[in-house]
Each structure stands twice: as C-alpha cells, then as structure tokens.
Amino acid sequence: MRLLAGDVGGTKTLLQLVDVNADGRSVALERRFESGRYRTFDDMLDEFVMLRHDLPIDGACLAVAGPVHDGRAEITNLRWKMDATTLASRFGIRRVTLINDFFAVALAVPLLGEADLVTINPGKRDPVGPIGIVGAGTGLGEAIVVHDGVRWNVVASEGGHADFAPQSEEQAGLFIALHRKLGHVSWERVLSGMGIVNIHNFLSGLDRRYDENLPREIADAATGGDETALKTLGTFVDIYGAEAGNMALRVLARGGIFIAGGVAVKNLSRFTDGRFLQAFLRKGRFRAMLADVPLYVIINPSVGVLGAAEMAHRAMAE
C-alpha cells in the first residue's frame, strides 16, 4: 500500500510517499517545497506525484496550518483552499483525509524515539499514561494524547486561548498592559512569536506591531548580549514552563509533557539550562508530583508528516 503524507504550511510544505507492507513503513520519496511558489496546492502535488508515478496512491492525509472542517481546509497566510473529495477525485486516491497540523504532531508523539527528543526531565514515564503536548510557534497549540488499551488517540484542545495567569509581579504588569490593550489575555498572547514581541514591547516601552521577522530579531539581539532581549527570552521561558506544568496537572501527564513548535527548537539552550524546568516544577505542594513527569522537547523536523502518515494508515484500515 502506498500513502501520501503531507505537512502543509504557509511557508514550507513537506510531502512524502510512504510504502506500507508486512515489514513496516518506508519513505519512498520526500520533498520540501516553498509553499508561496505555487498558486494552489494541486499545482504543488502535480509536480510531486510526477516524480514517482509508477504506483497509484491508495490513501492520503494532509496536515494543514489552518482550520479544517468537513473535509475542507484553508491555509493560513496563503489563498489555498483544499477539499478532500476533490483531491481524491483528481489524483485517483481512494481516500484523502485533512487534519490540523498540531493534531498531526500530537498523533506522532507516541511514535517518537530517543533521537527525536531532547530530555529536560527524565521523570518516571508510564508507557500508557496520558501525554500532554504544548507547542509555541506562530500561535500556541495544545493537545492531549490518551491510550484506550489498543491505540493512542488525540484529544484536540484550544487551551492556548485560555486565560493567562501571571507568575510574578512583573508578569502581572505584563498582564495589565496587555489587558488594557486587548481585553482578554490568553496564553497565546505571551507564548508564541507574537508573545515574544508582546513581552519585548512591555519590557522596552515600545509598541511595535508583530511581524514574523521580529521574534528572530529579538533572539539574535539576545545572542548579542542585549539586556532587554535577554530578559524577554528569560520571561518567555518562565511563562512557557509554567503553562507546561499546568498541562501536566490538568491531564496527570504521567506519559510525559512534550514541547513542540519552532520556538523551542530554535532556542534550545534556553530550554535546557534549568530555567524552564524550574518554572515547570513551581507548583507548590505538587512540585514532587511534577518531578516525576517526563519532559521533552521534540527536535524531529518531520514530526507533522509522521503524524499525517499515521492518520492516513488508520483511515485506510477503517
């Protein structure tokens, strides 16, 4: 059986052809594309499938950076519209499934090995215990993965839009400043690329509008020793660790907390120097319990397409 798996983003798209047989799965073809170079997703897929058209594609799952509803999706930051039924008909695929990209990450987490992870806290991992995933990138994704006795299942969440809870007087000042400006202050307002800019604006007294280059500029300034940028990233890590700890408490994540998203990977040293872990553990009477929760950063750049391949395989088995 041949499956098409994709991680479709506004900037980059990763596509794979995956062969499934009695020995397991193997990647027959993998390509990365610059999404903006293509007028539609169909144009990109046309180019990809022509590279290996020797066998038909039996099933497909595409994880997309945008809302998915009733087999249809729109890609954030592009004008692409995707329809599962139309794609199946045009490309002769028996079944096409569309899922949100963070759902795909969550589905892949139980499949990850040691090489895919950096351990922040080894803890005492229950192999079938609940898993929590928190991922700051353009936005803040959260999901839960639970085992039903047969397989792992994803419980989707919009926890990133729950109320931000300050952990210090300075963070309370950040909350007040954002509340005056925005009204509702969610975790995503402080834990995302936009969050880095919001924290930096508060600490510097500036009021710069977010654009996708600013978080990297702030990180680069921190690397160069800029005090405000350093404090910004330190505050960001503190807040991130606190929310990861909240997730661990909410779901009793004895299977581990997994940190996803580009921010952690690009600033990995700031997540492994002890500051993130201390913020994670800072839960008063429940500190000892959290010390037993495994804590990891996902470093596999193909985690989304791995989850998409898993979903495609499941859909074909139904």
Describe the protein's topology.
Blueprint: E1 2-8, E2 12-21, E3 24-34, H1 41-49, E4 59-64, E5 68-69, E6 72-74, E7 81-83, H2 84-91, E8 95-100, H3 101-108, E9 117-121, E10 131-136, E11 140-147, E12 152-157, H4 169-182, H5 193-204, H6 214-223, H7 227-251, E13 256-260, H8 262-266, H9 275-281, H10 287-291, E14 295-298, H11 303-317
Parallel strand pairs: 1-4, 4-8, 10-13, 13-14
Antiparallel strand pairs: 1-2, 2-3, 5-6, 6-7, 9-14, 10-11, 11-12
What features would you describe in this structure?
The protein has 318 residues and is an alpha/beta fold. It folds into two domains: 2-106 and 302-317, Nucleotidyltransferase, domain 5; 115-299, Hexokinase, domain 1, CATH 3.40.367. Helices cover 37% and strands 26% of the residues. It has helices at 41-49, 84-91, 101-108, 169-182, 193-204, 214-223, 227-251, 262-266, 275-281, 287-291, 303-317; strands spanning 2-8, 12-21, 24-34, 59-64, 68-69, 72-74, 81-83, 95-100, 117-121, 131-136, 140-147, 152-157, 256-260, 295-298. It has a six-stranded mixed β-sheet with strand order 9-14-13-10-11-12, with helices on both faces. Strand 2 (12-21) and strand 3 (24-34) form a beta hairpin. The longest helix is centred in the C-terminal third of the chain and has 25 residues, at 227-251. It is globular and about 60 Å long.
Descriptors for this entry?
single chain; 318 residues; alpha/beta; Nucleotidyltransferase, domain 5; Hexokinase, domain 1; 2 domains; 6-stranded mixed beta sheet; 5-stranded mixed beta sheet; 37% helix; globular
